[in-house]
């Protein structure tokens, strides 16, 4: 039994293409995403994140989930010398960049724990896949061309894995370099392939925030394969990137 | 391990002129040049971690660039060469690298020996560069679709979701 469903949560269109599970299982994944939105959104006054930001909670009182999210934020902030940050001055605590990939990965884990082994979850262009849509074939994940919306710049062949893209066309004007407070320049698009979407998504966002420095930084991240387009329209790819030959 | 990376980078940098200007170096005992085979050879036995620098001649390093079969490498394989550098003793331990060239471009670096580790591919920032291309292709999903609702309606991913 297969299910296909799209719902807007966390401001994202989230598509679930579940090939071996039922609607009730898909609903459990969506229910988790709605819970995550209520818990982690900095735009909801009663979320745990907002309460922490207002000083109504101390770090000792947080749920283990928020502790995990904040520790991921801290790790990437340190690793990028502050270019990536969940604490933009004047904007308060905003761990969205980590929460999105982390929560969507957990939604995919819910499908797997529910017995599914073949699915594709796509949250605003960040993707988790499992199994094979057809025997012997990987999920073909097209990476959007950074300047031509209906074209691709590379196609990846992925079985169990995650692909995330952070790009200027998407929300570049909203990604600030935490070191300078200025909008990021130098890169048009960063795509990261990893085992886990929390890692892939945060690595892509952090690399983007680093601008041109992000190219080498991303390439040096363990267990990540990258495809990066800079503003000179050069494409850089890791030797291990699972490029699908069409 | 992280501290070894600058050392490795220097080793690689040292190998480049050797490769470019001494193509006969393989006969001098310090460097081993191996044409990358069509299929990966058996993995080299783990080298000893003693401080002495064993000869690398005659060893059969694993072919680098043995990436997944989906990599578009077939046409270029004829020009691929791997070169093993000398073992260098540093304050961090013994370091030896192997570099794969396509023509004069480095396409891969692997640490044959690094301090406190087994032979391993280092997370060195080596990337392949190419011109940005545009293509359309049969795909299952899109990475990098726009995040906004309006953008989604016009996106490739919406077309895929709606087509099923």
UniProtKB/TrEMBL annotation, chain A:
InterPro entries: ApbE, ApbE-like_sf. Gene3D superfamilies: ApbE-like domains. Its EC number is 2.7.1.180. Its cofactor is Mg(2+). It catalyses: L-threonyl-[protein] + FAD = FMN-L-threonyl-[protein] + AMP + H(+). This is FAD:protein FMN transferase. Keywords: FAD, Flavoprotein, Lipoprotein, Magnesium, Metal-binding, Transferase. Coiled coil: none annotated. It is an enzyme of class 2 (transferase). Pfam families: ApbE. The lineage of its organism: Bacteria, Bacillati, Actinomycetota, Actinomycetes, Pseudonocardiales. It comes from the Bacteria. The keyword Lipoprotein applies.
UniProtKB/TrEMBL annotation, chain B:
It comes from the Bacteria. Residues 35-50, 67-80 have a biased composition (Low complexity). Residues 91-163 form the FMN-binding domain. Keywords: Signal. It holds the Pfam family FMN_bind. Residues 31-93 are annotated as: Disordered. Residues 1-28 form the signal peptide. This is FMN-binding protein. It comes from Lentzea atacamensis.
């Amino acid at each position: 039994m297969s299910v296909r469903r799209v719902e807007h949560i966390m401001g994202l269109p989230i598509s679930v293409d579940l090939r071996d599970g039922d609607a009730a299982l898909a609903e459990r994944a969506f229910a988790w995403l709605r819970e995550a939105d209520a818990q982690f959104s900095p735009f909801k006054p009663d979320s745990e994140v907002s309460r922490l930001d207002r000083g109504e909670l101390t770090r000792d009182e947080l749920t283990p989930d928020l502790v995990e999210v904040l520790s991921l934020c801290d790790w990437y902030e340190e690793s990028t010398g502050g270019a990536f940050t969940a604490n933009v001055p004047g904007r308060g605590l905003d761990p969205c960049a980590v929460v999105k990939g982390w929560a969507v990965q957990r939604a995919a884990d819910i499908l797997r724990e529910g017995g599914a082994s073949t699915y594709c979850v796509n949250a605003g262009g960040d993707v988790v896949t499992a199994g094979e849509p057809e025997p012997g074939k990987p999920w073909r994940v097209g990476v959007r061309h950074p300047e031509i919306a209906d074209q691709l710049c590379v196609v990846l062949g992925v079985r169990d894995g995650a692909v995330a893209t952070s790009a200027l066309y998407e929300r570049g004007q909203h990604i600030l370099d935490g070191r300078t407070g200025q909008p990021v320049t130098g890169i048009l698009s960063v795509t990261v392939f990893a085992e886990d979407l929390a890692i892939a998504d945060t690595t892509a966002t952090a690399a983007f925030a680093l601008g041109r420095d992000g190219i080498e930084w991303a390439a040096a991240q363990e267990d990540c394969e990258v495809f990066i387009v800079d503003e000179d329209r050069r494409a850089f790819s890791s030797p291990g990137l699972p490029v699908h030959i069409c | 391990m992280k501290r070894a990376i600058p050392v490795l980078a220097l080793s690689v940098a040292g190998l480049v002129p050797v490769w470019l200007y001494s193509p006969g170096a393989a006969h001098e005992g310090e460097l081993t040049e191996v044409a990358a085979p069509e299929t990966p050879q058996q993995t080299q036995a783990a080298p000893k971690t003693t401080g002495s620098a064993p000869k690398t001649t005659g060893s059969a390093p694993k072919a680098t660039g043995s990436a997944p079969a989906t990599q578009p490498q077939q046409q270029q394989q004829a020009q691929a060469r791997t070169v093993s550098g000398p073992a260098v003793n540093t304050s961090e331990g013994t370091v030896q690298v192997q570099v794969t060239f396509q023509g004069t471009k480095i396409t891969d670096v692997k640490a044959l020996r690094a301090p406190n580790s087994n032979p391993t591919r280092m997370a060195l920032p080596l990337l392949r560069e190419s011109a940005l291309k545009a293509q359309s292709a049969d795909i299952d999903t899109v990475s990098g679709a726009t995040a906004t609702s309006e953008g989604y309606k016009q996106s490739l991913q919406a077309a895929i979701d709606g087509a099923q």
